[in-house]
Write a structure and sequence with these properties.
Elements (H helix, E strand, L loop, with lengths): L6 E5 L3 H11 L3 E8 L4 H7 L5 E8 L4 E9 L18 E3 L5 H10 L3 E2 L4 E3 L3 E7 L5 E7 L8
Parallel strand pairs: 1-4, 5-9
Antiparallel strand pairs: 2-3, 3-4, 6-8, 7-8, 8-9
């Protein structure tokens, strides 16, 4: 039986930069940092790779985890930091906020790129999309207290 979402995972070319972004700017807590060199048969089987060499960090927020990987081997292809949300694949990480306007202002002042200022979605609430340093999309929603996503 599926009990819920445990974590999302993001691969980056610069683990330290992404940890700083999610820890220092967005308030995640680092709960695990580890690495392994080539020859980890278990990781290779799970990843369907050979000779994987990885640094990883697991970060926690109030109700979920975010896992960050940096592969030294094999080195992945560079991602498109402006990848459109219409391309197939996981499109974004969504983080609950108490005050959307305040978070938008704080994060924009810290240099986070946003697609637009917060927008109203009738019956659902307000939201905006921004990008982490690798271009991954981070959604900041403020649900309508009477809407279907109220908590």
């Amino acid at each position: 039986m599926i009990r819920g979402l445990h974590h999302a995972s993001v691969t980056t070319a610069d683990l330290d930069r992404l940890v700083r972004f999610y820890r220092d700017l967005l308030g995640f807590e680092v709960v695990l940092e580890t690495s392994w060199a080539g020859g980890n048969a278990v990781a290779d089987a799970i990843f369907a790779l050979r000779g994987s060499a990885v640094r990883m960090a697991m970060l926690r927020t109030s109700n979920a985890f975010l896992e960050l990987f940096e592969f030294a081997h094999p080195v992945g292809k560079s991602g498109d930091p402006n990848r459109p949300v219409c391309d197939p694949g996981i499109t974004h990480i969504c983080l609950n906020v108490d005050d959307l306007d305040a978070e938008y202002g704080r994060l924009k002042a810290a240099g986070m790129r946003f697609h637009c200022p917060p927008q109203d979605a009738t019956g659902v609430g307000r939201a905006t999309y921004g990008r982490d340093p690798d271009g991954n999309i981070v959604e900041l929603p403020q649900p309508d207290p009477a809407g279907p996503f109220a908590q």
